[in-house]
Amino acid sequence: MSPKITTELLKHLRQVMKNPRYVQEPVQAYIVPSGDAHQSEYIAPCDCRRAFISGFDGSAGTAIVTEQHAAMWTDGRYFLQAAHQMDSNWTLMKMGLKDTPTQEDWLVNVLPEGSRVGVDPFIIPADQWKRMSKVLRSAGHDLVPVKENLIDTIWTDCPQRPCKPLITLDLSYTGVTWRDKIVALRSKMAERKVMWFVVTALDEVAWLFNLRGSDVEYNPVFFAYAVIGMNTIRLFIDGDRMMDPAVREHLQLDSTLEPEFKIQVLPYGSILSELQAVGAGLSPKEKVWLSDKASYALTEAIPKAYRYLTPYTPICIAKAVKNAAETEGMRRAHIKDAVALCELFNWLEKEVPKGTVTEIVAADKAEEFRSQQKDFVELSFATISSTGPNGAIIHYKPVPETNRTLSVNEIYLLDSGAQYKDGTTDVTRTMHFGTPSAYEKECFTYVLKGHIAVSAAIFPNGTKGHLLDSFARSALWDCGLDYLHGTGHGVGSFLNVHEGPCGISYKTFADEPLEAGMIVSDEPGYYEDGSFGIRIENVVLVIPAETKYNFKNRGSLTFEPLTLVPIQTKMIDVSLLTEKERNWVNEYHQKCREVVGAELERQGRHEALRWLLRETEPLVRVQ
Amino acid sequence: MSPKITTELLKHLRQVMKNPRYVQEPVQAYIVPSGDAHQSEYIAPCDCRRAFISGFDGSAGTAIVTEQHAAMWTDGRYFLQAAHQMDSNWTLMKMGLKDTPTQEDWLVNVLPEGSRVGVDPFIIPADQWKRMSKVLRSAGHDLVPVKENLIDTIWTDCPQRPCKPLITLDLSYTGVTWRDKIVALRSKMAERKVMWFVVTALDEVAWLFNLRGSDVEYNPVFFAYAVIGMNTIRLFIDGDRMMDPAVREHLQLDSTLEPEFKIQVLPYGSILSELQAVGAGLSPKEKVWLSDKASYALTEAIPKAYRYLTPYTPICIAKAVKNAAETEGMRRAHIKDAVALCELFNWLEKEVPKGTVTEIVAADKAEEFRSQQKDFVELSFATISSTGPNGAIIHYKPVPETNRTLSVNEIYLLDSGAQYKDGTTDVTRTMHFGTPSAYEKECFTYVLKGHIAVSAAIFPNGTKGHLLDSFARSALWDCGLDYLHGTGHGVGSFLNVHEGPCGISYKTFADEPLEAGMIVSDEPGYYEDGSFGIRIENVVLVIPAETKYNFKNRGSLTFEPLTLVPIQTKMIDVSLLTEKERNWVNEYHQKCREVVGAELERQGRHEALRWLLRETEPLVRVQ
């Protein structure tokens, strides 16, 4: 991977930062956040402005360009990748390390007195605007909205915004009709005494209307906004997608409906003016509910006194708790996914020793096996197929320049997943196709102990996920080891592979309590720069736990693994496991045998079945 | 404990809430917070306004009185106590439970439109004012400062503010002179580009000047403020305490000093006008540093643009990291404290079967033994001496109405500590003087497992204490049990027994990372309402840990128990302990034998020594 040469681009950007065609007064700094106008994590090519200007294309990062500097903030997952992809014009700001300044503090430090800091008001979330503008103002600077995106002005070959056909999901997949979702939403609105709700996140629009799209790779979403009133529904969406008879039928666009369920379809680009009209027409006490992560532009459309902002929207919270149809769908999707991975690992075991399997070949093969499964739609994220030192690049994606050949001498880490019409998967397995060293086994076993500590944890109803994060680290900490990422994220149901409001991370405190029906990942790891990476990831469902006692009648929760892919026993130093941990592995593997074995049998995949049976032999106690 | 009858008092308060002598316009609600003008946790009798109006005298709670309602917010430690002490005029608001509204939400719900909510601006912290006034304003109400404290106007026999003599601490206790502390503070101020620092917390004033007082029971502090400039030192303090030659000498009040170390002594009551004068004289860019928990009144004295507010002050952070002199002092104090408790438990073992020892007698006896130790000053908090069901009242203090007799049939919980001139102690032991039931032993053992899990935890440098909280709960959670309080608090060095900025609790996120030299408590528990309470508490010192590996060269930390008092082995179900846990107990007891044994020997306390040796026999593995 050679870095992108950005000298000319930065020169060009610094020119437009002073060009009166785009800015009323020159801006001394320009912020290029990661997201799009919906604050999406995964974005369409036309929204990859930060990658365009810097070369760094990881999923998280914020660039700031001043007259003298160009700096990039990103987190531990991307330190190595960002360092590889950016040229010497850029300074890497390692978030999470003690001495790394915040963006605001850095700006205050480098800017000349009375500077103007520009940002696209459609891209920056309102909460971030508020925080930054406060710090900047108190240091004598100004955060200013720049209506025309300055990156777009210099991005001559910027791709078009996608506008792909929609998929309708029936009740067997969603469990609840969009009408009932609107009813539930309005009842939440009534509870909080708000008259309007603005849906800005793409997965929330998709979930609410039981529609899916493919405008953004890996995330089955489509560019749209919605504004829900107590008696009106407005959907802002472009293209001829609303001409599709299946979609018209699904949304009952041509039926005679009670007026409060009649969907008014409006152009995507009219959201700001429509919202401004709503804002202008509000009578006292008529509040408008928005996520505090909605864009500054949309938030400003509603006069401050009328805004009701929350970190998590009622849709986000409802979406996280999967109903029976969704849970069953997720189970089915994970069984199919396990079938594909059993095929893959069986194939890899045979092929790797020949020395012809590269990271890209392995990733493509994984996709091939997945695509053979029923209701497969696409991958749920870019496959992390990494061997040896590439495994230490936490969110690595193989490209021709970095593509290594798998061998019997290196650890192989595969983090991959798919979108099926019935569910979303995300699984990481770390394998050795030869003989792992004692040290590699030791590290793998600490990671496994952390994985089990979370997966088998029992905790009271109402516990927030961040309180479980240290369980995943304890075995590593005991030996002075750790990993620089969170332990788990919420997973959507045929939706985004990363979703809120729950998760398992030391980094958040504002996560919502875990509830039965929520689905998160459990993925501790250990990474040694330049050598190897280890991660063990299952997607797990929050379920009620039976306990001996029941303090204050609160009830307890635990996790049930949905992912059912063998954990390579060759990598385990069994002497480091407690009896409880050994039993956990054996019971997990027994379940893989039963459930995935039956499906392999049904699909006539006998060789993969033999591989599964071999890989799930019980661990025996060592003395 | 019979509740305080508050009908007349509340009637009287509601009258003054409308009396133009005290309020410009009537207030529809009046907030009575817990603290004093320094936001102290422990307060002088004259500041116990919330206890006066409600009867509830726990250490934490906020009362709000409206025309129709009187409500009290307090946390899990005090649910039972508050319910006992308050009459039916009061509604108990159980903080931490899901359905309990915040004070702001409750006010918005009960108040008539456009209400005024009054509060003493000297008592309410600025951060709380900000939060409340924002919510109230957005609901159409106003938070208004009421200069004259309305409780004081109806509290006819309010005691006088104390003004007791000061204690000076020399270098052998403090390790650093007050001059060097001022130098270090000014260097922190220079780093942040602030010109003034306002010291509002009583323990911060005491620490900064190496002085102690006894104005507040249990906390060796004195009523004072300080304002530190880059070239000036102003100390606001009343009484003739500054006439004491030892104090004058200590502060070098009569010496010829460089002007920047000359202390200007001013009346306590002049802080507001002096600070207003500072505020009025600021030139641009001259910032004033205050804690965001300083009172609203003092914060408002500085124009907003000139304020620099942080959750933790540089004094709070420096004070938390104990130097070698302080650490050695804390060690000495804990050895003396252990001697006193060995004497006490030996005595209790003989006396309890006679049926003559009440909770109060036991608490007095504990104080008697402690007072025999060198440099004993006073207790560090009200002794929690509780047997049977009283043990479930988490912050119970025995009074004649509740005083139970210790017996061989009930669990006895003693949470006690002292102020010695060389250190502060805080220790809880749970004992049975007869034969505990299997269930009592089971619960005790889960609590012990939690205690050990924290005490023996190894974690990376920079870890915040709240990330360790779940370790203390894991064994309880596994069986469906839990406790409704945090796991640990910072402990001062001959200062407040509760201090920031570190601690171990699921409730905080803004705690500062643990550093070697910090001192916290480790005190998980389990409480069964109406039956018993169990808590095992040691004060522990954060120390560097040796680990097999050292990820990113970060270094690791762990804890060293300073408390060296036997944990009753009779209460332990050894079959529930892992080998590692059993070894921890045995090594801990071995250290108690060696260190405390030697001191008991030195003090000629042979009977207590025999008790110690008996109580610290190693646990033997059960099959």
What features would you highlight for this structure?
Creatine Amidinohydrolase, 623 residues, Creatine Amidinohydrolase, Chain A, domain 1, homodimer, six-stranded mixed beta sheet
Structure notes:
The structure is a homodimer of 623-residue chains. With 623 residues, chain A is of the alpha+beta class. Chain A folds into three domains: 6-154, 3-Layer(aba) Sandwich (Creatine Amidinohydrolase, Chain A, domain 1), CATH 3.40.350.10; 167-319, Creatine Amidinohydrolase, Chain A, domain 1 (3-Layer(aba) Sandwich); 321-615, Alpha-Beta Complex (Creatine Amidinohydrolase), CATH 3.90.230. The first copy, chain A, contains 19 helices and 28 strands. In chain A, strands 4-3-2-1-5-6 form a six-stranded mixed beta sheet. In chain A, strand 5 (116-119), helix 5 and strand 6 form a beta-alpha-beta unit. Chain A is globular and about 75 Å long. Chain A binds chain B through residues 98, 138, 305, 457-460, 462, 467-471, 473-474, 476-482, 506, 509, 545, 547-552, 554, 556, 578, and chain B through 98, 138, 305, 457-460, 462, 467-471, 473-474, 476-482, 506, 509, 545, 547-552, 554, 556, 578. Chains A, B: GO terms for molecular function: metal ion binding; metalloaminopeptidase activity. Chains A, B: It is found in: Cytoplasm. Chains A, B: Homodimer.
Distance between the termini of chain A: 47 Å
| CATH topology tier name of the largest domain in chain A | Creatine Amidinohydrolase
User: Strand arrangement, largest sheet of chain A?
Assistant: 4-3-2-1-5-6
Indicate the low-confidence ranges of chain A by residue numbers: none
Query: Approximately how much helix is present in the residues of chain A?
Result: 25-40%
By DSSP (H or I, 4+ residues per run), the number of helices of chain A equals 19
Radius of gyration of chain A: 25 Å
Query: What profile does the largest beta sheet of chain A have?
Result: 6 strands, mixed
CATH architecture call of the largest domain in chain A: Alpha-Beta Complex
Any idea how many domains of chain A?
3
Looking at this structure, what is the CATH superfamily of the largest domain in chain A?
Creatinase/methionine aminopeptidase superfamily
Largest interface: A-B, 34 and 34 residues
GO molecular function, one term (chains A, B): metalloaminopeptidase activity
Function (chains A, B): Metalloaminopeptidase that catalyzes the removal of a penultimate prolyl residue from the N-termini of peptides, such as Arg-Pro-Pro. Contributes to the degradation of bradykinin.
InterPro entries (chains A, B): Creatin/AminoP/Spt16_N, Creatinase/aminopeptidase-like, Creatinase_N, Pept_M24, Pept_M24B, Peptidase_M24_C, Peptidase_M24B_aminopep-P_CS, X-Pro_aminopeptidase_P
Domain Peptidase M24 (chains A, B): 328-542
